[in-house]
Amino acid sequence: MEKPTRGNLPTLAGLVALPFLAGALGSWATMNEVRGWYTTLAKPAFNPPSWVFGPVWTVLYILMGVSLWLVWRSPSPESRTTKVTWFAMLTLNAAWSPLFFGMHRPDLALIDIAFYLVTLSALTRLLWAQSHLAGWLQLPHLAWVTFAAVLNASIWWLNR
Questions:
Q1: Residue 133: is it exposed, middle or buried by C-beta count within 10 angstroms (0-12/13-18/19+)?
Q2: Three-state secondary-structure class, residue 4
């Protein structure tokens, strides 16, 4: 497991910055839709208020970066697979907002989030095998994406 040192702190900063960049790219073109089209949709009673999403994703993006950093230089044979899976998960994360908000396609976003959930589950298992802490750090992420998938499915169902 990584220990913070002066030499690997730039790696930590970069790995924490990448999820924020992916999130920004994924939502940049869709901000107006959050305040426009999204407000017109029927939503389930358990839909959280809009202000919840920013703080939740901020914490999750930090946990994503830290968890990969903990195993970044792992000698484990699964290290490369872990990195590829992490980047695949991040790509699916970034694709969701343009699908849901940009294209107004909760159905396509639901397919994306299903793949995201499967990829995140595989990632959590891979991280756990190399560092229990790295695996634990993804449990809130896994819980939130599971909730988000149920929310996405509910919004799709209510607005078909």
A1: middle
A2: coil
At the topology level, CATH places domain 9-158 in: Ferritin (1.20.1260)
Ordered by start, the domain boundaries in the chain are 9-158
Dist CA 51 CA 39 (whole Å): 14
The token pair at 88 is: 């695949």
pLDDT tens sequence across 66-122: 999 999 988 888 889 999 999 999 999 999 999 999 899 999 999 999 999 999 999
Interatomic CA distance for residues 96 and 105, integer angstroms: 10
Please check whether residue 116 is in contact with residue 89, taking contact to mean a CB–CB distance below 8 angstroms.
yes
End-to-end Cα, the chain, rounded Å: 47
What are the pLDDT digits (tens) for 30-50? Answer: 766 667 888 899 999 999 998
pTM of the prediction? 0.89
